[in-house]
């Protein structure tokens, strides 16, 4: 397994994923009571964009690089950009925060984070990132196994992000089954499952499996920056959300179309938000 998120950190898919994450966390914060945030595939938590290996592909330039200097009227985009700016001291874009760092920037003293990462080097970086942070617990190992142990949490409110690298064809099935099993253990939790859109990806099969599972209230948001049949590229990505808090659908409907315009890479870009399974 060779996946290293550093090469992709801050690309259009990260921007989309992290904007949706901000939408879900901000919505959870509308209630005073504390919540738990769990990640099964947490990565390193922070990525140095000046690293020569990262500079070779520099995917971030067509992602966060396009938004970095832009002002936005959209509250979600503003909150997301504030989290990215929070790890950069000064006007230059040098560092990109991973999802754990973005979540940490948003949560309150009454909330807590549980983070799993399997790759030992990445997990060591993640543990250093949150050393001495009493609101964050880092666990090195398989995120799917950790999920079983985490749920249901005592807080009774919270969000689980599943963000696997999809290195093997079997991962599509594994992640779909994991989210349904997790929902069985904790049916009131909010779940967000990220997936890539590329030619030949079994997205329809994943959606059919979710629809057939009996789980209700599944919202899907997708962004395509290339036409969906462009070969050999990541054409876009999506997030399937179970139990999204009230009004997150409307907020994403507002935030994503302008974002697709900013992140467009091919001749056209599209964004859509739709209920895969309603109430
Ligand atoms: C897409 S990256 C995560 C990025 C991160 N969520 C973010 O947005 O900043 C996927 C991560 O999952 C890790 N990984 C792969 N399989 C795993 C597993 N079964 N359990 C936990 N982590 C895993 C990889 O090492 C990689 O760091």
Automatic annotation (TrEMBL):
<feature type="binding site">
    <location>
        <position position="117"/>
    </location>
    <ligand>
        <name>S-adenosyl-L-methionine</name>
    </ligand>
</feature>
<feature type="binding site">
    <location>
        <position position="99"/>
    </location>
    <ligand>
        <name>S-adenosyl-L-methionine</name>
    </ligand>
</feature>
<keyword id="KW-0949">S-adenosyl-L-methionine</keyword>
<dbReference type="GO" id="GO:0003723">
    <property type="term" value="F:RNA binding"/>
</dbReference>
<keyword id="KW-0698">rRNA processing</keyword>
<feature type="binding site">
    <location>
        <position position="18"/>
    </location>
    <ligand>
        <name>S-adenosyl-L-methionine</name>
    </ligand>
</feature>
<dbReference type="InterPro" id="IPR007473">
    <property type="entry name" value="RlmJ"/>
</dbReference>
<dbReference type="GO" id="GO:0005829">
    <property type="term" value="C:cytosol"/>
</dbReference>
<protein>
    <recommendedName>
        <fullName>Ribosomal RNA large subunit methyltransferase J</fullName>
        <ecNumber>2.1.1.266</ecNumber>
    </recommendedName>
</protein>
<feature type="site" description="Interaction with substrate rRNA">
    <location>
        <position position="3"/>
    </location>
</feature>
<keyword id="KW-0808">Transferase</keyword>
<feature type="binding site">
    <location>
        <position position="41"/>
    </location>
    <ligand>
        <name>S-adenosyl-L-methionine</name>
    </ligand>
</feature>
<dbReference type="GO" id="GO:0036307">
    <property type="term" value="F:23S rRNA (adenine(2030)-N(6))-methyltransferase activity"/>
</dbReference>
<dbReference type="InterPro" id="IPR029063">
    <property type="entry name" value="SAM-dependent_MTases_sf"/>
</dbReference>
<keyword id="KW-0489">Methyltransferase</keyword>
<keyword id="KW-0694">RNA-binding</keyword>
<feature type="binding site">
    <location>
        <position position="163"/>
    </location>
    <ligand>
        <name>S-adenosyl-L-methionine</name>
    </ligand>
</feature>
<feature type="binding site">
    <location>
        <begin position="142"/>
        <end position="143"/>
    </location>
    <ligand>
        <name>S-adenosyl-L-methionine</name>
    </ligand>
</feature>
<dbReference type="Pfam" id="PF04378">
    <property type="entry name" value="RsmJ"/>
</dbReference>
<comment type="function">
    <text>Specifically methylates the adenine in position 2030 of 23S rRNA.</text>
</comment>
<dbReference type="GO" id="GO:0070475">
    <property type="term" value="P:rRNA base methylation"/>
</dbReference>
<feature type="active site" description="Proton acceptor">
    <location>
        <position position="163"/>
    </location>
</feature>
<comment type="similarity">
    <text>Belongs to the RlmJ family.</text>
</comment>
<comment type="subunit">
    <text>Monomer.</text>
</comment>
